[in-house]
Amino acid sequence: MYFKLKPSDPNPRLKRKIYLRYIYWMVNRILKTPSSSLFSGKFSNEPLPEDNDELAIITVAFNNLDVLQFQRRSLKHLKDKNYSHLIADNSNDWEQSKAIAAFCEQENISYIRLPKSRRLDAISGSWSHGAALNWLYYHYILPRKPKYFGFIDHDIYLIRPVEIKNKIGNQRFYAHRGTQENNMYWLWPGLMFFETGFLQNLPVNFLPCRVDGLYMDTGGSMWCILYSKLDTGKLRFAESQNYTLTELGYDNDSIVSFMDDCWFHSGSAGYRNDDITKYHTIVADILKAYL
Questions:
Q1: Which of 142, 151, 255 is nearest to 199 (CA)?
Q2: pLDDT of 270 over the 80 cut
Q3: pLDDT tens, position by position, 58-104
Q4: Cβ–Cβ under 8 Å, residues 262 and 162
Q5: Which domains does the chain show, CATH number per domain?
């Protein structure tokens, strides 16, 4: 299959138009990469699964095995009976990828190493993340056609029993909303589930976007494609309550979030510059009450 995406930004200025052409040239090169070519690293444990589960959950991993281990344990709270879990590895550290793949093989979790562009990684993690989501949608979701699918960050954890199918309901999606000015928003791809048929026949694009001078992060391009056409007043989003770890009794000023009374997001697990061991210890201590 071959897909070619075009920028969603309406009426960009000349300089940005040139910039977007360059970005989309790289993104579309990634989209042309078939899944069969991604297993040359010899540590991928299996090809993409072909079974048609009702719910396909995809974790986009990035350079951090410990949080994936926490997350995997947390999924015991998931009440959906027929679901699959894929760890899609977007790491730029080869040793981390090998460790993540070995964990997936040990735990019998489906794993795939995503195609990468060093130039795209260097420009922005948001663009790289969006390119990864696009690849997964067109090469994994569309061919398998699960009734529902969702993307979650590697550092978000279930802390209460949840049935995603019920959360989606008649609204046809369930997600946390990233807000902007003028009532524009995007759905945060760290917690974002859809009824697959809801996106049917749309030029789905999870890259960032700029509209009327406002920047919307990963997933922002869907504003022009879909979200701007929905009646926001009739929608429900997963609300977030943010705290510093200091407020929770730890000697750390990082911000963490509790979402919809059933998710805990520890945040920035792949990009931390502080003591990563201390970070993992704090996350483990918080999750101790839930797992």
A1: 142
A2: no
A3: 999 999 999 999 999 999 999 998 899 999 999 988 899 999 999 99
A4: yes
A5: 53-237 (3.90.550.10)
Q: How far apart are CA 47 and CA 140, in angstroms?
A: 11
> For the segment 43-60, what is each residue's pLDDT rounded down to a tens digit?
444 455 566 679 999 999
The radius of gyration computed from the CA coordinates of the chain, to the nearest angstrom, equals 18
Question: How many whole angstroms separate alpha carbon 207 and alpha carbon 119?
Answer: 16
The tokens for 19 are 């910039």
> In degrees rounded to 5, what are phi and psi of residue 10?
-80, 130
Please name the amino acid found at residue 201: N
Tell me: the pLDDT tens digits for 190-226?
999 999 999 999 999 999 998 888 889 999 999 999 9
Can you name the residues that pair with 259 across neighbouring β-strands? Answer: 240, 263
Which of 102, 97, 130, 111 minimizes the C-alpha distance to 48? 111
Q: Whole-model pTM?
A: 0.91
